[in-house]
Amino acid sequence: MQTLFDENGVLNISDIVTSHPQYQTIMEDGIVTEEELKNQLERVVATLRHLQEICDETQQSAILDALSELSVFYAVYHNRQLQEIRI
């Protein structure tokens, strides 16, 4: 099992994503299609529904907090990258 953090305590998300079989399959040809996006979204929804089924309210709240913080980070990181392109 992969760990969330590397040996320096830094979030290991890049390695987690790039080593994920689904990511590797999608990126195999270097092009992300609408169908691949749709299929990945369906996988995300199915995984989140499964978590909702197996977790109690406290666990669901912790998962929601983590997903929210990660999503905010992704959004502001993406916006920061766009700012650098405009400069």
Write the layout of secondary structure elements.
Elements: H1 13-18, H2 21-27, H3 34-54, H4 57-86
Provide an overview of this structure.
It is a single chain. The protein is mostly helical. It is built from 4 helices and no strands. It has helices at residues 13-18, 21-27, 34-54, 57-86. The longest helix is centred in the C-terminal third of the chain and has 30 residues, at 57-86. The mean pLDDT is 93.
| Overall average pLDDT | 93
Portion of residues in beta strands equals under 5%
Q: Uncertain runs with pLDDT below 50, 5 residues or more?
A: none
- Note the run of SSEs as H and E: HHHH
Major β-sheet, in short? Answer: none
Contiguous helical run count: 4
What's the end-to-end separation, in Å? 41 Å
Q: Look at the helices and sheets and give the structural class.
A: mainly alpha
Helix amount: over 70%
Number of strands: 0
Q: Which geometry do the CA atoms define?
A: globular
Gyration radius, rounded: 16 Å
Summarize this, please?
With 87 residues, the protein is mainly α. The protein contains four helices and no strands.
